[in-house]
Amino acid sequence: GLSKIPIQSAKDFASLVSGVNSALWREYEDTDSPIPLHSFRHGDVRVDICENGGMLCRLINPVKCETAFYTESEAETFASDFLSECGFNDMVCTDKSLFEFSSVFVFVPSVNGILLMNAPVEIAVCLSNGAITFFDSSEYLRKYRTDIDAMQNEINIVLPENLEVRESVRCIADINGKEK
After folding, report:
1. More exposed terminus of the chain, fewer Cβ within 10 Å: N or C?
2. Which of 76, 6, 80 is nearest to 38 (CA)?
3. What is the mean pLDDT of residues 7-19?
């Protein structure tokens, strides 16, 4: 399994992703999480780091977003870069929502060409300054796996003769409470 990280390492990483000095963090307990976490807060900023492995689980960083200086495309690049910096590799954006002064993106991992739709990461970017205002990888941390063979369980689809498949995407999703 993943090694348990020291609390100071978690504080340092929390500081790196949020910009808050590690000496200012106050610990708190997140009793709702099924994942063991190092949880920190300073003012309105909250950061949860996984005790095992040290991955970023959650970031709440409310900043004032009053003007849109960045486009949705630029915000998606900020989100993608942030994911990479935090160790979330081979991620694909599957959904995006544009609001007046922010954009919200959903990324899922691609493992052996298969999208793990049941392991999403949600990330919000302020269009005023490019700051990450929200990040949640709790489902990713609970359901991500690499034991997938792209060739197993071939799916045969029966289509009417007048339909043509132009592109297909293989994915795993939770449907009616079951992974399919």
Report:
1. N
2. 6
3. 94
Mean per-residue pLDDT, 106-126: 92
Give yes or no for residue 179 having a pLDDT over 80.
Answer: no
Euclidean distance between CA atoms 111 and 108, whole angstroms: 10
Q: Is the separation of the CB atoms in 171 and 116 below 8 Å?
A: yes
pLDDT of residue 159: 55
Q: Give the contacts of 76 (CB within 8 A, at least 6 positions apart).
A: 93, 96, 103, 105, 125
Residues in the chain, total: 180
Find where tokens 């493992």 sit: 111
C-alpha–C-alpha distance, residues 16 and 39, integer Å? 15
Tokens of 123: 């990330």
* 82-94 CB burial, b ≥16 within 10 A, e <16: bbeebebeebeee
Q: What share of the chain has pLDDT > 90, as a percent?
A: 62
Q: Averaged over 153-158, what is the pLDDT?
A: 46
Q: Return phi, psi of residue 19, to 5°.
A: 85, 5
CB burial readout 35-58, b (16+ within 10 A) else e: bebbbbbbeebbbbbbbeebbbbb
DSSP code per residue over 59-73 = EE------S--S-HH
pLDDT-based confidence at residue 3 (cuts at 50, 70, 90): confident
- State the Cα–Cα distance between residues 159 and 139, nearest whole angstrom: 33
